[in-house]
Amino acid sequence: LPTDFPASPEANTEASAQSIAAALSPEETQALLRDVPAAYRTEINDVLLAALALTLQEWSGQPALIALEGHGREELFPNLDLSRTVGWFTALYPVRLALPPDSLRNPGLALRTVKETLRAIPNRGVGFGILRYLHPDPSVRQQLQAIDRPQVAFNYLGQFDQALAQMPGFGPAPESPGPDRSPQDARSHLLEITGAIAGGRLQMEWEFSPHIHRPKTIQRLAQAFLDHLRALIQHCQDPDASALAPSDFAEFGWDEEDLSAILEAIDDVE
Length: 270
Fold this sequence. Notes:
Blueprint (H helix, E strand, L loop, with lengths): L17 E6 L2 H15 L3 H17 L3 E7 L20 E7 L9 H13 L6 H9 L3 H8 L6 E8 H6 L25 E8 L2 E8 L6 H22 L19 H14 L1
Parallel strand pairs: 2-4, 4-5
Antiparallel strand pairs: 1-6, 2-3, 5-6
Helix pairs in contact: 1-7, 2-3, 2-7, 4-5
Protein backbone atom coordinates (compact mmCIF):
# COMPACT_ATOMS: atom_id res chain seq x y z
CA LEU A 1 0.00 0.00 0.00
CA PRO A 2 1.09 3.60 -0.38
CA THR A 3 2.33 4.95 2.96
CA ASP A 4 2.96 8.47 4.23
CA PHE A 5 5.87 7.33 6.42
CA PRO A 6 8.08 4.21 6.31
CA ALA A 7 6.22 1.18 7.66
CA SER A 8 7.91 -0.89 10.35
CA PRO A 9 6.75 -3.10 13.25
CA GLU A 10 8.34 -0.63 15.67
CA ALA A 11 6.19 2.21 14.30
CA ASN A 12 3.00 0.21 13.75
CA THR A 13 2.17 -0.68 17.37
CA GLU A 14 -1.17 -1.20 19.10
CA ALA A 15 -0.41 1.79 21.33
CA SER A 16 -0.23 4.06 18.27
CA ALA A 17 -3.51 2.89 16.72
CA GLN A 18 -6.21 5.44 15.92
CA SER A 19 -9.62 5.05 14.30
CA ILE A 20 -11.68 7.07 11.85
CA ALA A 21 -15.40 6.33 11.55
CA ALA A 22 -17.59 6.70 8.48
CA ALA A 23 -21.30 5.90 8.17
CA LEU A 24 -24.21 5.81 5.77
CA SER A 25 -27.49 7.50 6.60
CA PRO A 26 -30.42 5.33 7.78
CA GLU A 27 -32.07 5.76 4.36
CA GLU A 28 -28.93 4.69 2.52
CA THR A 29 -28.51 1.73 4.86
CA GLN A 30 -32.06 0.58 4.15
CA ALA A 31 -31.39 0.83 0.41
CA LEU A 32 -28.19 -1.19 0.89
CA LEU A 33 -30.12 -3.96 2.65
CA ARG A 34 -33.24 -3.87 0.47
CA ASP A 35 -32.39 -2.81 -3.09
CA VAL A 36 -28.83 -4.01 -3.69
CA PRO A 37 -29.26 -7.77 -3.05
CA ALA A 38 -32.26 -7.95 -5.39
CA ALA A 39 -30.35 -6.62 -8.40
CA TYR A 40 -27.43 -9.05 -8.51
CA ARG A 41 -28.41 -11.70 -5.92
CA THR A 42 -25.65 -10.51 -3.65
CA GLU A 43 -24.92 -10.51 0.08
CA ILE A 44 -23.92 -7.36 1.94
CA ASN A 45 -20.30 -8.54 2.14
CA ASP A 46 -20.14 -8.60 -1.67
CA VAL A 47 -21.16 -4.95 -1.87
CA LEU A 48 -18.90 -3.72 0.93
CA LEU A 49 -15.90 -5.55 -0.53
CA ALA A 50 -16.65 -4.25 -4.02
CA ALA A 51 -16.57 -0.68 -2.64
CA LEU A 52 -13.37 -1.46 -0.74
CA ALA A 53 -11.71 -3.06 -3.78
CA LEU A 54 -12.58 0.00 -5.89
CA THR A 55 -11.18 2.30 -3.19
CA LEU A 56 -7.91 0.40 -2.75
CA GLN A 57 -7.31 -0.22 -6.47
CA GLU A 58 -7.95 3.46 -7.22
CA TRP A 59 -5.51 4.44 -4.44
CA SER A 60 -2.69 1.96 -5.04
CA GLY A 61 -3.10 1.18 -8.74
CA GLN A 62 -3.01 -2.55 -7.91
CA PRO A 63 -5.56 -5.29 -7.21
CA ALA A 64 -6.64 -5.31 -3.58
CA LEU A 65 -5.15 -8.04 -1.38
CA ILE A 66 -7.33 -8.33 1.72
CA ALA A 67 -7.33 -10.55 4.79
CA LEU A 68 -10.97 -11.51 5.25
CA GLU A 69 -12.14 -12.45 8.71
CA GLY A 70 -15.19 -14.53 9.49
CA HIS A 71 -16.61 -15.80 12.77
CA GLY A 72 -16.65 -19.39 11.52
CA ARG A 73 -20.15 -20.12 12.81
CA GLU A 74 -21.81 -20.18 9.40
CA GLU A 75 -23.59 -23.32 8.23
CA LEU A 76 -20.56 -24.58 6.32
CA PHE A 77 -21.36 -28.29 6.19
CA PRO A 78 -24.47 -30.47 6.56
CA ASN A 79 -25.03 -31.86 10.05
CA LEU A 80 -22.64 -29.36 11.64
CA ASP A 81 -24.14 -28.55 15.05
CA LEU A 82 -22.50 -25.72 16.99
CA SER A 83 -25.38 -25.20 19.42
CA ARG A 84 -23.37 -26.49 22.41
CA THR A 85 -20.36 -24.27 21.75
CA VAL A 86 -19.55 -20.70 22.79
CA GLY A 87 -17.46 -18.08 20.97
CA TRP A 88 -16.01 -17.72 17.51
CA PHE A 89 -14.07 -20.13 15.28
CA THR A 90 -12.37 -17.26 13.51
CA ALA A 91 -11.33 -17.88 9.90
CA LEU A 92 -8.74 -15.48 8.49
CA TYR A 93 -7.79 -15.96 4.85
CA PRO A 94 -6.25 -13.86 2.04
CA VAL A 95 -8.36 -12.81 -0.96
CA ARG A 96 -7.15 -11.04 -4.09
CA LEU A 97 -9.84 -8.83 -5.64
CA ALA A 98 -8.65 -7.94 -9.14
CA LEU A 99 -11.18 -5.66 -10.86
CA PRO A 100 -11.43 -5.22 -14.65
CA PRO A 101 -10.16 -1.85 -15.99
CA ASP A 102 -13.68 -0.51 -16.63
CA SER A 103 -14.85 -1.12 -13.06
CA LEU A 104 -14.45 2.49 -11.90
CA ARG A 105 -16.97 3.53 -14.56
CA ASN A 106 -19.10 0.40 -14.26
CA PRO A 107 -20.19 -0.37 -10.67
CA GLY A 108 -22.17 -3.41 -11.78
CA LEU A 109 -19.08 -4.99 -13.32
CA ALA A 110 -17.12 -4.45 -10.10
CA LEU A 111 -19.91 -5.97 -8.02
CA ARG A 112 -20.26 -9.05 -10.24
CA THR A 113 -16.48 -9.58 -10.27
CA VAL A 114 -16.21 -9.46 -6.48
CA LYS A 115 -19.28 -11.67 -6.07
CA GLU A 116 -17.83 -14.37 -8.35
CA THR A 117 -14.41 -14.17 -6.67
CA LEU A 118 -15.93 -14.68 -3.22
CA ARG A 119 -18.24 -17.49 -4.37
CA ALA A 120 -15.23 -19.40 -5.75
CA ILE A 121 -13.67 -19.63 -2.26
CA PRO A 122 -14.52 -23.04 -0.77
CA ASN A 123 -16.39 -23.06 2.55
CA ARG A 124 -15.90 -19.32 3.17
CA GLY A 125 -12.14 -19.70 3.59
CA VAL A 126 -12.15 -21.99 6.60
CA GLY A 127 -9.86 -24.42 4.76
CA PHE A 128 -6.97 -21.95 4.47
CA GLY A 129 -5.97 -22.17 8.13
CA ILE A 130 -6.57 -25.94 8.19
CA LEU A 131 -4.26 -26.46 5.21
CA ARG A 132 -1.72 -23.97 6.54
CA TYR A 133 -1.22 -25.71 9.89
CA LEU A 134 -2.65 -29.24 9.59
CA HIS A 135 -1.94 -30.43 6.03
CA PRO A 136 -0.08 -33.76 6.17
CA ASP A 137 2.46 -32.60 3.55
CA PRO A 138 5.11 -30.37 5.22
CA SER A 139 5.89 -28.64 1.90
CA VAL A 140 2.25 -27.48 1.58
CA ARG A 141 2.31 -26.13 5.14
CA GLN A 142 5.60 -24.32 4.47
CA GLN A 143 4.31 -22.74 1.25
CA LEU A 144 1.15 -21.45 2.89
CA GLN A 145 2.95 -20.22 6.00
CA ALA A 146 5.42 -18.34 3.79
CA ILE A 147 2.66 -16.27 2.17
CA ASP A 148 2.96 -12.59 3.07
CA ARG A 149 0.16 -11.33 5.27
CA PRO A 150 -2.12 -8.85 3.46
CA GLN A 151 -1.70 -5.27 4.67
CA VAL A 152 -5.48 -4.74 4.88
CA ALA A 153 -7.90 -6.68 7.10
CA PHE A 154 -11.68 -6.53 6.70
CA ASN A 155 -14.42 -7.82 8.98
CA TYR A 156 -18.16 -7.20 8.64
CA LEU A 157 -19.73 -8.03 11.99
CA GLY A 158 -23.37 -8.13 10.87
CA GLN A 159 -26.63 -6.45 11.87
CA PHE A 160 -26.45 -5.72 15.58
CA ASP A 161 -29.94 -4.22 15.48
CA GLN A 162 -31.36 -7.51 14.23
CA ALA A 163 -29.57 -9.55 16.89
CA LEU A 164 -30.64 -7.26 19.74
CA ALA A 165 -34.26 -7.30 18.55
CA GLN A 166 -34.31 -11.05 19.22
CA MET A 167 -33.07 -10.59 22.81
CA PRO A 168 -35.50 -8.37 24.75
CA GLY A 169 -33.92 -6.78 27.81
CA PHE A 170 -30.42 -6.73 26.34
CA GLY A 171 -28.55 -3.83 24.78
CA PRO A 172 -25.00 -2.63 24.12
CA ALA A 173 -23.00 -2.10 27.32
CA PRO A 174 -22.19 1.61 27.78
CA GLU A 175 -18.75 1.09 29.31
CA SER A 176 -15.56 0.43 27.34
CA PRO A 177 -14.36 -3.18 27.41
CA GLY A 178 -10.76 -1.95 27.52
CA PRO A 179 -7.93 -3.06 25.24
CA ASP A 180 -7.83 -6.68 24.13
CA ARG A 181 -4.23 -6.51 22.88
CA SER A 182 -1.00 -5.41 24.51
CA PRO A 183 -0.11 -1.79 23.63
CA GLN A 184 3.44 -3.00 22.94
CA ASP A 185 2.30 -5.53 20.37
CA ALA A 186 2.96 -4.89 16.67
CA ARG A 187 -0.25 -4.47 14.69
CA SER A 188 -0.75 -7.29 12.21
CA HIS A 189 -2.01 -5.04 9.38
CA LEU A 190 -1.57 -1.45 8.20
CA LEU A 191 -5.33 -0.94 7.87
CA GLU A 192 -8.07 -2.77 9.76
CA ILE A 193 -11.58 -2.04 8.52
CA THR A 194 -14.53 -3.19 10.59
CA GLY A 195 -18.19 -2.67 9.77
CA ALA A 196 -21.57 -3.32 11.37
CA ILE A 197 -25.15 -2.07 11.22
CA ALA A 198 -26.13 -0.45 14.50
CA GLY A 199 -28.70 2.23 15.28
CA GLY A 200 -30.14 1.75 11.79
CA ARG A 201 -26.91 2.83 10.08
CA LEU A 202 -23.99 1.07 8.45
CA GLN A 203 -20.95 2.17 10.43
CA MET A 204 -17.39 1.52 9.26
CA GLU A 205 -14.31 1.97 11.42
CA TRP A 206 -10.87 2.42 9.83
CA GLU A 207 -8.03 1.65 12.24
CA PHE A 208 -4.52 2.79 11.33
CA SER A 209 -1.25 4.03 12.82
CA PRO A 210 -0.48 7.74 12.42
CA HIS A 211 3.18 6.69 12.33
CA ILE A 212 2.42 5.07 8.94
CA HIS A 213 -0.50 7.10 7.51
CA ARG A 214 -1.63 10.65 8.17
CA PRO A 215 -5.21 10.92 9.48
CA LYS A 216 -6.21 12.98 6.43
CA THR A 217 -5.09 10.09 4.17
CA ILE A 218 -7.40 7.67 5.98
CA GLN A 219 -10.22 10.23 6.03
CA ARG A 220 -9.88 10.53 2.27
CA LEU A 221 -9.99 6.72 1.89
CA ALA A 222 -13.01 6.39 4.16
CA GLN A 223 -14.84 9.05 2.14
CA ALA A 224 -13.88 7.38 -1.16
CA PHE A 225 -15.24 4.10 0.20
CA LEU A 226 -18.59 5.73 1.03
CA ASP A 227 -18.69 7.39 -2.41
CA HIS A 228 -18.15 4.04 -4.15
CA LEU A 229 -20.71 2.37 -1.90
CA ARG A 230 -23.30 5.04 -2.70
CA ALA A 231 -22.56 4.62 -6.43
CA LEU A 232 -23.15 0.87 -6.09
CA ILE A 233 -26.44 1.45 -4.24
CA GLN A 234 -27.62 3.97 -6.83
CA HIS A 235 -26.66 1.62 -9.67
CA CYS A 236 -28.61 -1.28 -8.13
CA GLN A 237 -31.70 0.91 -7.74
CA ASP A 238 -31.85 1.30 -11.52
CA PRO A 239 -34.63 -1.01 -12.82
CA ASP A 240 -32.32 -2.13 -15.65
CA ALA A 241 -29.49 -3.09 -13.28
CA SER A 242 -29.67 -6.85 -13.12
CA ALA A 243 -27.46 -9.68 -14.32
CA LEU A 244 -27.08 -13.38 -13.77
CA ALA A 245 -23.72 -14.93 -12.93
CA PRO A 246 -22.35 -18.51 -12.96
CA SER A 247 -22.47 -18.67 -9.15
CA ASP A 248 -26.25 -18.22 -9.33
CA PHE A 249 -26.36 -21.69 -10.90
CA ALA A 250 -23.53 -23.33 -8.99
CA GLU A 251 -25.30 -26.70 -8.91
CA PHE A 252 -24.97 -26.96 -12.73
CA GLY A 253 -21.25 -26.15 -12.90
CA TRP A 254 -21.67 -23.56 -15.66
CA ASP A 255 -18.92 -21.05 -16.42
CA GLU A 256 -19.31 -17.56 -17.93
CA GLU A 257 -19.20 -18.92 -21.50
CA ASP A 258 -21.88 -21.50 -20.79
CA LEU A 259 -24.15 -18.91 -19.18
CA SER A 260 -23.68 -16.42 -22.04
CA ALA A 261 -24.55 -19.09 -24.60
CA ILE A 262 -27.67 -20.15 -22.69
CA LEU A 263 -28.89 -16.56 -22.27
CA GLU A 264 -28.29 -15.85 -25.97
CA ALA A 265 -30.30 -18.94 -26.88
CA ILE A 266 -33.16 -17.78 -24.62
CA ASP A 267 -33.08 -14.34 -26.28
CA ASP A 268 -33.25 -15.99 -29.71
CA VAL A 269 -36.31 -18.03 -28.68
CA GLU A 270 -38.03 -14.94 -27.32
